[in-house]
Design goal:
Length: about 60
């Protein structure tokens, strides 16, 4: 009777550990998603600034 109860207890502990790990993975995936979104926003802003600088430089070259 001891071994079946022990097996059930170990199975429950294993499921609890997997549940905790799943929550940690979910939280980290959300954090990574926020970082990727922030990086994409910063890259878009830098690309727009580069485009404006290129237009300004082209006008300066045309003026020469």
């Amino acid at each position: 009777m001891f071994w079946p109860m022990f097996a059930v207890a170990v199975g429950f502990v294993g499921l609890a550990v997997l549940g905790v790990l799943a929550v940690r993975v979910f939280v980290e995936a959300q954090r990574l998603g926020r970082q990727v979104a922030e990086s994409a926003r910063r890259i878009n802003r830098a690309a727009e600034e580069l485009e404006r600088a290129t237009v300004s430089a082209a006008r300066s070259v045309d003026a020469l």
